[in-house]
GDSL esterase/lipase (Glycine soja), 352 residues
Amino acid sequence: MMNSHKQLFPLFSLFLVLYLLGQRVVLQAEASPQHGPTKLFVFGDSYADTGNIQRTVSNSWKDPYGITFPGKPAGRFSDGRVLTDYIAKYLKVKSPIPYRLRKLMPQHLKYGMNFAFGGTGVFNTFVPLPNMTTQIDFLEQLIKDKVYTTLDLTNSVALVSVAGNDYGRYMLTNGSQGLPSFVASVVNQTRSNLIRIKGLGVKKIVVGALQPLGCLPQETATSSFQRCNATSNALVLLHNSLLNQAVTKLNQLETTKDRYSTFVILNLFDSFMSVLNHPSTHNIRNKLTPCCVGVSSGYSCGSVDKNNVKKYRVCDDPKSAFFWDLVHPTQAGWHAVYNKLRTMNALQHILY
């Protein structure tokens, strides 16, 4: 009998160890989801748009846009990939299908959807396309139509791009008078949009801080692309300060039940400036000079005359330029910003 007990004791000990290990695995599984997000929903403007604007409306569908990726114009406001594509890459999902193409390519619905339209803002702009409120309406309708389920939304991330089109319209209409109050209204509307997206069931919502508008080529052209406009960047700092305050308050309202439901700011200002201040680190040689410009002030990147003769010129190496046209980064520019965000550990908070 004693020998039997001696044989049983190691077996019991082994069982106990395996049981405790099993309990530990269960606890770890409960502490963090086993799977990351499977879908990306995108709202905003040309920094995130991957083809929602009609071909006949925008230069983004004309040569030389898309020459780096996918090798032809595809509706992206760059020579290649944009912010959406890099966020999708980080999430390890395919870049979501543009809303405009949802019925033509239903097999891609499983990756989410891109509702961003170039030129739009949180309010109406000079571009008569869906503003962000309407873009969120589109997702809400798709949920009502059962295109996306509650589980789909739970396993998703939303990317919100606010790149400054509201300010462009305001300043052309009103100048700088009352600008601080308008900045507050833009941020307040952005906050309302974030809350609404969360209310639809999205568990992680990422909003881009405003990039340094004063460093865009349309601003630096007056200095022959040598200096950023400090006045414009002061506006950006006000916007970003108010946005940070708003998002911090939203996160403070998070409950234990919604511990994975967080609002995250992508610090595009600091990441842009880091690349522009140290361009050689990212193999960038032309930091403020745009790669693609019109041959004169009456033309822009992608312009042709009535005889279809090109009225633009393109730099020899888009991969060495940060800016593609007067407003948008090249693929190389976005890639550098993406890498900087990664080194800043700004992206890890996107994952559950």
